[in-house]
């Protein structure tokens, strides 16, 4: 049976029969792959714990008729372990995995840019950076903007997304493609704070030094714009996004409770 090897990040798993699982992975050179992991749910399995979501692995597949089969797997990074200890980071990571699964829709189609973006974002969530940790929501928003841009849906954050007239402009509309001028704005367009738009531009271009000191209100407003943009272009909502929204709400209510009463 022919085999092939690749680096991959586990996106999701499904039970199959009494002891097997179907593993969905995003690989470096073979795009999205769905493969059967035989006996992986047994306690005696040699690599059961290496095939959980967020696992970064070196994996060998045996080509099958309907689905390939996991033949061998070695752990490169177990990003799931630190994420499980941080609810906000874990929920943001779940949105990343679901987004990558949706954006790379065709199995076997190489998507190296999406793979690198996802692995890099999950690494930052789980391990931080050389200059310290970054807020999970900020990492998520940056990933979403850049992943959609790589897929061909880059938001316009300066010039008008409809007529192209040079910005800056005051209005944002997901269906129009981003910022729009007063003449092109559709009904219901948002009017974000100019600083919020600059913040999103920094996230899109990876200029992290410009995100330091951004007010929490602008971060929340930016997250709302990003979520609206992503859900419009993916055509249906991300199921995991509801967990992130609940996490935002709980954090906001906690901040209000901690404020001194006048």
Task: Summarize this structure briefly.
This protein has 262 residues and is α+β, with helices and mostly antiparallel strands.
Shape: elongated
Biggest sheet statistics: 5 strands, mixed, barrel
| Mean pLDDT over the residues | 88
* Helix-strand sequence: EEEEEHHHHEEHHH
How many beta-strand elements? 7
- Low-pLDDT stretches are 249-262
Total DSSP helices: 7
- Report the C-alpha radius of gyration, rounded: 20 Å
How much helix is in the residues?
A: 25-40%
Q: Within the largest sheet, what's the order of strands?
A: 1-2-3-5-4
Instruction: Output the structural class.
Output: alpha+beta
Straight-line N-to-C gap: 73 Å
Report strand %: 15-25%
InterPro entries: ARFGAP/RecO, DNA_rep/recomb_RecO_N, NA-bd_OB-fold, RecO, RecO_C
Protein name: DNA repair protein RecO
Organism: Luteococcus peritonei
Family: Belongs to the RecO family.
Describe the protein's architecture and organization.
It is built from 7 helices and 7 strands, in the order E-E-E-E-E-H-H-H-H-E-E-H-H-H. It is of the alpha+beta class and 262 residues long. A 5-stranded mixed barrel has the order 1-2-3-5-4. It has a two-stranded antiparallel ribbon with strand order 6-7. Strand 6 and strand 7 form a beta hairpin. The longest helix is centred in the C-terminal third of the chain and has 18 residues.
Descriptors:
262 residues, five-stranded mixed beta barrel, two-stranded antiparallel ribbon, 7 strands, disordered C terminus, ARFGAP/RecO
């Amino acid at each position: 049976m022919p085999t092939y090897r690749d680096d991959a990040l586990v996106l999701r798993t499904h039970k199959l029969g009494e002891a097997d699982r179907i593993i969905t992975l995003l690989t470096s050179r073979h795009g999205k792959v769905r493969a059967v992991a035989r006996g992986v749910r047994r306690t005696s399995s040699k690599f059961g714990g290496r095939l959980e979501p967020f696992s970064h692995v070196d994996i060998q597949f045996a080509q099958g008729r309907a689905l390939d089969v996991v033949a061998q797997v070695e752990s490169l990074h177990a990003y799931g372990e630190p994420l499980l200890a941080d609810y906000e980071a874990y929920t943001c990571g779940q949105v990343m995995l679901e987004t990558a699964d949706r954006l790379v829709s065709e199995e076997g189609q190489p998507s190296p840019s999406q793979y690198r973006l996802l692995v890099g974002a999950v690494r930052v969530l789980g391990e931080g950076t050389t200059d310290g940790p970054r807020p999970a929501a900020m990492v998520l928003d940056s990933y979403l903007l850049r992943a959609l841009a790589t897929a061909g849906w880059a938001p316009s954050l300066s010039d008008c997304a409809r007529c192209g007239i040079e910005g800056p402009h005051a209005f944002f509309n997901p269906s129009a493609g981003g910022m729009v001028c007063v003449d092109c704005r559709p009904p219901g367009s948002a009017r974000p704070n100019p600083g919020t738009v600059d913040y999103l531009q920094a996230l899109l271009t990876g200029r992290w030094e410009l995100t330091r000191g951004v007010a929490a209100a602008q971060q929340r407003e930016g997250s709302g714009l990003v979520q609206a943009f992503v859900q419009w272009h993916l055509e249906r909502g991300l199921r995991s996004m509801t967990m992130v929204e609940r996490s935002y709400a709980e954090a906001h209510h906690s901040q209000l409770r901690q404020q001194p009463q006048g």
